[in-house]
Structures are given as structure tokens and as C-alpha cells.
Design a protein that fits this description.
The protein is mostly beta strands and about 450 residues long. The chain has five helices and 26 strands. A hairpin with a 2-residue loop joins strand 22 and strand 23.
Amino acid sequence: MKTRISLFLLCFVIVFSLKSQSKDVNYTIHSSTGLSSDTTLPFWLVTNQYGNVPNSDYGLLNTAIFKDYDTPDTLFDISYKASATGFKAQENKVFVNELYLGVRFKNIVLDLGAKNDAILWNNLSSSNGSIIKSINARAMPGITIKTNNFIKLPFATSWLEFKANFAHYFMNDTRFVDNTNLHHKSLHFKTTLSPTIDIIAGLDHYAQWGGISQQYGAQPTSFKDYIRIIFGAEGGDNALETDQNNALGNHLGAYLLQFNYNKENIGLNFYYSHPFEDTSGREMSNWQDGLYGVFVDLKKNKSLVNSVLLEFTYTKNMSNIPRTDVGPDNYFNNGIYKSGWTYHGNTIGSPYFTPKPIDDNGITSGVIVGDNRFAAINIGANGFLKSLPYKAMLSHTTYYGWFGQEYDPNPYQFSGILDIVIPQDIFNLPFDVAASFAFDAGTYRPQNFGAFLSIKKTGSF
């Protein structure tokens, strides 16, 4: 079924590409290579690349054809993209990055297929502004219906807006529970306090369900079970005893609280992304845990520093309070869905959560227990070195180990990266050139230095 859906979407993309006569049909051809002083790449060379870069020296070729939405004012519009990558590394691979068709009618958008999330905060965030959903893993195929950004509520048009989505995805990688389904919904409100200040608050909710477990067999997949998943209800008689006593499936999500201050000469944003995996997290028993960020947009054109970001990620609490029924939350792991919050071997949420190594069957069994208790600081900036765009990031992470089994001493990690782009118009080149230099230092990962070089051609027809 999922193969037929993919072929259907591919046919759509080809047909729309061939029929379109406008210059908004674009293509990219992107070739890159990465090298390091160790057998693996430095952290920031492989992290937050949509799962497209191998963790070893490589040569890579990516091609894409796509069409964006024309203008926000059109009543009806379409977008689409087909993108594929092949690389030669320790393990050679060819795979589809994105394959989707998007249809927008007024303020409602329908996405069919696998589509990457948009990059936020000028790509300076360690986790794209959300502790639960970064840009560290590949896009999953699925169906999404959502609002096109925020929509004003008719009874409060001057001060209250909302955005929402409802989605179903297929986790079609090699997993402990084969053919796992993923439900996702979100709801966020924005209130305007003044012409310069607004507040955003809301939540994202994900739930893994269904599939066939190597240990427990087929999991419930009826329509009644789907309704239970949507509302986080207990499982029925066809569920395992643990799911009959608790919510059916593996539920996790995040609250978002964001303050925005925006003036003509400066923008200031504060955001807090708080994880939850059960009732204790939803009730904020683990309120200390989360991703805290401050983003400053200096609103300058091609200055040495255009924007700055400071983030702090903390996960040591895990609702570890005196309870007789359950223990701490153990973020991104689950007893039934043992591949946890990973996809194709990469962590879906904050990349500071280290996934367990892929076993001989190609399965990742969640993230490393104990390494999911950490504190991390990330500093980033971007701007222009004369006429060359750059991005710089530096992070420090300390890992603490599991409760009662804390590490002594605590492993720590410094990781940094500098990205520089040479646009094609500077030297009249037929393509853009980009280079990155990254390092790891500390006691958690190998001492490492690496570099990345790419050329990218973008055009339209």
C-alpha cells in the first residue's frame, strides 16, 4: 500500500513538472564530500541534516525538482517536490529524501507524502526550536492537513489567532515494531498584546501505535483503537495489559511557550519547549526539563552579525518524584515500541539524545539510557564575512547517567562548526560553493576535526 502511494505521488510530481510552463519549476543538483580525522564525522557535520548525511567520510550527490506555492494571495495553489540522494561511504545508499504533493485552498493545506519541516531560527537552533521534533531525521511519508500559518479567530480578530494540524505517518524504516503508525496533532494560539509584543502557546502530540512487534506480536489497529490513540485513552481488550492500564501506544509531545518582541530595528524571541510522555509530564511534574532559547534578530543587512541565538537544554528531572506505580519517564524510549523516538537510526527530537547503535538486523533500539539525562548549552550566530554568508555554532553537553547509576566522572563534549557560502554571483561561477569546518573535543565523543565542501546548482525551467 505504501509503495503504491509513493508511486502515485511520483507520477503526480512528474505530470505537474512537465505540464508547468512557468519559471517557478525549480531544480537543484548538489554534490558534496565530508572528511574527518576519525572514523566518524564531527557532531555538527552530521547532525540536523534531515538524516541525509552518513556518519563517516563520504561523497554525496543530491538532485531535486520542485515547485513552491506561487503567492499567499491565490485562492488555490499547488506545490510539489521529488528529491533523491546517493552517497558512497562506509555503507553506500540511495534513497528518497522528499516526495510530496501539497494542495492549498485559502488557508487550509493538504500535504501528501514525505516533506521536510521548515528550518526555524536561521538554522542556529540545536533542535529547530522544539525538543521533541528537530530536523535530525528523514521526513516520514504520510498525510497532513493543517492551517496555513496562523488564522484569526472571528470573535477576536484583533488579538487572537490559531494554527493547527492533524496528521498520520508511516514509520517505514527497519524497527523493533514493524510498520509502526505515527499519529500527530498540534494546536497553538497567538495573542497580540501590542503592536510589538505577542505570545504563542500550544502543544504537539505524537503517538506511535499499531505495527507488529517482534516480542508482543500484532498491536491493535482497529478504528476504535485509532480513536483511543487520538484521545490518549486506555487500550481495549485486544491490547497488552500495560496498555489496558495506561494509554494505548507510545505517547509523547511537547508544550511550547514563546514570547516575541518585534520592532523596526530589532527582534527578540524567547521560547520554551517542554517534553511530556505521560500524565506527570503533562502536569508539569518535570517542569525543569526542556529546551530554553533566546533569539535576537539585529535586522541588519549583510553585517558581521545579523542574528544571535542562545539555547539551554535540560533533561535531568524526568518526573523522578516519589511514586509507587511507575518510575522516571526515560525520554524517547518505550517498553513496547523499543526503537523509541528514532527513525532510520537517527533521533527525531533533540540530537543531544544519542541513539543506540544499529544492530545486525538494522534496528535501532531507542536512545542510550542515561545519556538521555543531560544539560547542554548552544550558542549560534550568523552574518557576513565581507560579502560571504556564514553560520557559526558552539555547544557544550554534559551527560549524567541514569538514576542511581550516575556517571563518575560525567562525560562532556564541546562541538563547534563554521559554515561559509560563496554565492555564484561573487566570482561569476555557475554554482554556489559552500565549506564547513567542525570539531569535537571532550570525553564523550572521539577528538575529531572534519571539513565539508559542496557545490550546488539551482535553476528553473
